[in-house]
Write the structure tokens for this entry.
Amino acid sequence: MSCIPVTAEIQTNTTTLIGLYLVGSDLESEDGYGTADIIQMIDGYADTNPDILNLIIAYGGAFTPEWTGMTIATIEDLKVDGEDSIIGNDEHYQYRDRNANMGDIASLSQFLSTLDDVSREQAFLIFWDHGEAYNGFGYDENYADQLSIDEMTQALEEHDGWYDLIGFDACLMGSLEVASRFTPYTRYFLASEEMEPGEGWNYTDIIQSFLQTRSPDPVLFGEIVIDSFIAETGQDSTLSLMDLNTTALLLTQLDALGYSLASQTKEPALYASVGSAYKKTKAFGSIPRERTESSLDLTNLLQNVRDAVPQVSTDIENVISVLPSFVIYEKHGSMSPNIGGIAISSPRFLDSTGYTDLADTLSLTEGWDRFFASYITKKTDDIAKPEFVVQDEGTYNLIDRYDTADVGIDYYAFDDDGMMILGSEPAFPQPDGFYQLPQWTGEWYFLTNPDKEGEYALLEMYYVEEYTDGSLVYSSDIDIEHDKKTDMAIMNTIFSPETGEITTSVLPYTLRENGEILYAKKTIVPEPGDKITTYASYLSDTSEEEELIPIGTITVTDETKIVHAVLPDGIYAYGLYAEYYNGEGDYADMQVIEIAGYDIIPLSFSSEYDGYYDSETEQYP
């Protein structure tokens, strides 16, 4: 470890202290977002008197040479260091250890020690990097390590840490499991339920606006951050300010609801009703293809459970009545409707083993934990597949005891060596509760350039959810080449049935060595010249494992759009499919067709394509 003597004394008395723990990770090494935000802070701070506002920043945790280890610097240090627009290549700082791991509690503790030495009237503590909700925060890519929530709160406990506001400029940290852990260390908690697009917060705008108010109020600071963030990032953003003085009351009401639900869901029909409510709720950090889903909006969940299980409506209303005092300021974009500003963990892809591993992390109250654990246990123990049973010709009854199966229409394309999954559409029961398979027109989704004849890319499109306004959300696996860099990404597409409008957002991600997905703290807006490569899952006749294969590449222009058009000539199939979280499922009414020109030709199961379809079991391999 090397600690260089202080280059400029820390201002030890100030009205407002802002401490920023900035773990650069790949956001810095690949995109320079850490440096960009520090430059924003320098610009916003300008010639401010440190008696009024003092900023102290810990940065590092990236492969970039200047960002290895951890450096702690004041804003005055960084004003000198950043004169060449490069952060970390100068000796103006308070502390530096090139071997430090910012994903380790020791580094956070070192930073908090520095903040402890500053006398202030109030202090805000901000964490910047990737967030994984209750799984932790801050990925130091030099050590492939991140801070757990327990490590963060332990460091605060060891320093008797109290901050007037603690915020996360990071994805997915606006969950009750996270916020409740920070209750002993702050009154106000600022975080997002959703992914954070763009470069995160606009620090120039935030600091300048805060200074102009001439008020040290943490609530005002939180409102400024939220207003600036939503105004800049737009339609798929959320950000909330929570008053943690209300945490105890909220958890008390949630505890009572948990006990009631645990009792009611002993009945299979009511358990199934809760499963149906969970399926309808707005989800965050959800990539169904990767079998991952972080959390659900608590307000939306409560509303859905109230509608599904009226026996617990009084307990639910008691929880809902507390939420306006807990989430005191919240804004969200148009692509995140019907949310309330605080999330709670999702059971969708959790089984009993996974829950046992996360039980301490997910724990909220004894009553809620009892319900949540019993729900997951029932879901895990239900080893029977969902089953379609013929009711009448073309009509099917789904046997799904607990109403937890995802039901859709799956679509496939065949070649001489196997089959490719085109994606899925939602399937909803008829008023009588039965399912029918609508006739397919042979149309599917493409990215196309209308101004360039014949230039298109087929899209694998998976249905994700339906918004309250009836809009349908789909996701696709893509690579995007943008700003001379190629990212793996999920492209979310939203179709509005009322207006016909189609909107998209592209969320990059990386896969960690342990298989976990690390979401980028940004979204990409495709620009002319960007290249998008689309992918689909393929199952060959000689393999039991799916592989992801490229199915098209297109260069973005001003005219690029998504269209629904007839597929190229070939053999295709479609049918109803019901699936549990563990992949167990059942097909019904599988239809095989040939597309020849614009003609749709039904094929019988005894045709030459019978090799891809078992007509005895009526299932694909």
Summary: The two ends are 58 Å apart (CA to CA). The longest strand covers residues 585-596. Residues 248-324+341-381 form one domain.
